[in-house]
Write a structure and sequence with these properties.
CATH topology of the largest domain in chain A: Dihydrodipicolinate Reductase, domain 2
CATH class of the largest domain in chain A: Alpha Beta
Helix content of chain A: 25-40%
Family (chains A, B): Belongs to the Gfo/Idh/MocA family.
GO molecular function, one term (chains A, B): nucleotide binding
Pfam families (chains A, B): GFO_IDH_MocA, GFO_IDH_MocA_C3
Protein name (chains A, B): Oxidoreductase
Radius of gyration of chain A: 21 Å
Distance between the termini of chain A: 39 Å
Order of helices and strands of chain A: EHEHEHEHEHEHHEHHHEEEEEEEEHHE
Largest interface: A-B, 70 and 71 residues
Largest sheet of chain A: 10 strands, mixed
Oligomer: homodimer
Number of domains of chain A: 2
């Protein structure tokens, strides 16, 4: 049997958050995955989700999470619960030998995340977080570009921002702003992507230190609504990011090397599901006299998508699950390592904010 | 006589730096300006410039700066000398009642700049610095957009970067990297534009404090090759910038309000001289489920140019000069005020670098 072409991975979804609708569709679109069960805190909530999303009758509904985890027909679970509940339910799932696709932010801190990752290692299950843009074909194409020394040279700086304008209802009620549920606020919700994009650009080389930007904003419960940071490496490399729930939507990534540059303004959620593009340029110079840019100018590269990035994430996760389930392979631990580095930087940003914006050293630990 | 439509302003150029070629062309293209004299440190240097640029025989060449300043046929001077010489020669020009178009960075620090500005006030001459992009019609259009509350809302954040890759010859020989000539390095050469763009976006509201980014790089003489900073205002507004002579060319500006956003990737020198564009978007939202952006997506607005931004700068400066020269108007001091705020932030970035990246308060003084 060819790699990852086994029987479809049977998914259960634990929790019916808004993002569960996205993954419900993604599992449907992924040829190597199938949804078999949905659990919510009550059966009625699961039924509301079923009717709102047109869930097939073949999918079992559960009114509690444990019962889904006890269902032997479930290979893997997608967990979109509030972040503070991740460690409990991810570990519970892993101990029932369920492979785990865990929504981001993955944990309240790296200590919690380590409990989850360790449980995955002990139980031999696949772990992946729900950072969808990592699985877009554009991301692969951009990586090709920045990995080519003749096009890109050596990485020098990265800037990323992800902002959106939360309305008053969201600010008052969303779990992402409740310190008892998702205390990481904008940093966990969207700063996560900026940090991931920076680590992605550096080939996951952890920065030596992280310095939070001054002027973060918080809600009355102390949950971040906007913040940012600079990340510093030994060799002069610097990256900055800004995230906010209080500004017009942006999802910008700019990666600059000595010889090349890429720009993308929809890196997390592409404007269109069937294609996406990025702008790149290599070896630009000034004209003489200095009145403009010498040709060639930055060019747009368009990447077509047969299935959207969320479905491609499910496909890639499911291939790994099939490898473990049917082919006695070891789980692919690179995804856990990437998640852990992201969480380490999230923790460092918060620590820097709490420590009066002093630099916080980042250690693999 | 209509505003600024008097006899053409008669320009002298003091110094034959590379950027003088740009202004030589700009003066030629500006209908209300004419070049009458060029001075260099020696007549032979002026003659080289003349033959390299096709300077008309009607233009007087001088082998020293004083003689040009003594020429009564010169109304205004453009000064592209190394920054450390600005205070001496700008003041000398002003005391001869010459209006001054001063290349940026305008001075080594605000104390020097204040000497220049005060001399302009005392002598009643027009001052403007050579920040060309301020005079592009696109800049006006972008300002219209961010000034419209229904399109842009309230300003929340700005990010700007300007980078280019200096070659080894430039790094070894360019005056911008010689501490005895232009000790501000990348900060003065290109960080100047980033800082100006941030101030422009805030309607020239000075930040409360400036914090330099860690990891600046310097040449062996201690001149900055790359650096950046965050600028902080009381109301939660934050802006960041990065400038470098060690990375592929970029000239990015992203301005984000609560309701709108603009992106431009060639804000200092447009890709094309006859038109330029910027992308803008208002009131973007996520789709439900969260798989993308709701329409309308960001749109490109194209602005046509009859004459390039450098020529438009000369036109606008010359109009003001005609007002003073022929119509007994007072010089327009807004340009000096904008220059001064830019220089104050430049100074604060350097002070923060020198003070171990601590915040530096910015005062109007």
């Amino acid at each position: 049997m060819a790699d990852g072409e086994g029987r479809a991975v049977r998914f259960g979804i634990i929790g019916c958050a808004a993002i569960a609708c996205t993954l419900f569709r993604a599992i449907k679109l992924a040829p190597n995955a199938t949804l078999v069960a949905i659990a919510s805190r009550s059966l009625s909530k699961a039924e509301v989700f079923k009717s709102a999303n047109g869930v097939e009758d073949s999918v079992t509904l559960y009114g509690d999470y444990e019962s889904l985890l006890d269902d032997p027909s479930v290979d893997a679970v997608y967990i979109p619960l509030p972040t503070s509940l991740h460690v409990k339910w991810a570990v519970a799932a892993v101990e029932k030998k369920k492979h785990v696709l865990l929504e981001k932010p993955t944990a309240m801190n790296v200590a919690e995340l380590d409990v989850i990752i360790q449980a995955c290692e002990v139980n031999g299950v696949q772990f992946m977080d729900g950072t969808m843009w990592m699985h877009h074909r554009r991301t692969d194409k951009m990586k090709e570009f920045i990995s080519d020394p003749s096009l890109f040279g050596e990485l020098k700086t990265v800037h990323s921002n992800f902002t959106y304008l939360a309305d008053s209802n969201f600010l008052a009620n969303d779990i992402r702003l409740n310190p008892n549920l998702d205390g990481l606020g904008a940093l966990g919700d969207i700063g996560w992507y900026c940090i991931r994009s920076i680590l992605w650009a550096t080939d996951y080389k952890l920065p030596n230190s992280v310095i939070a930007n001054r002027n973060p904003t918080f809600n009355d419960s102390g949950v971040p609504l906007s913040c940012g940071a600079s990340l510093i490496w030994d060799n002069g490399l610097i990256a900055t990011f800004h995230c906010s729930m209080q500004a017009q939507m942006s999802m910008d990534l700019c990666v600059i090397g000595t010889r090349g540059i890429i720009h993308v303004n929809d890196f997390v959620l592409p404007f269109d599901e069937t294609f996406a593009s990025f702008n790149h340029c290599s070896d630009s110079r000034f004209t003489e006299p200095i009145i403009g840019w010498r040709r060639p100018l930055p060019r747009e590269e368009v990447v077509q998508m047969e299935i959207p990035q969320d479905a491609r994430m499910v496909v890639e996760f499911s291939k790994l699950v099939v490898g473990v389930r049917d082919e006695h392979r070891s789980p692919e631990m690179k995804w856990a390592a990437i998640t852990r580095k992201t969480q380490l930087v999230v923790d460092a940003v918060l620590a820097s904010i709490e420590n009066e914006f002093k630099p916080v050293d980042v250690h693999q630990g």
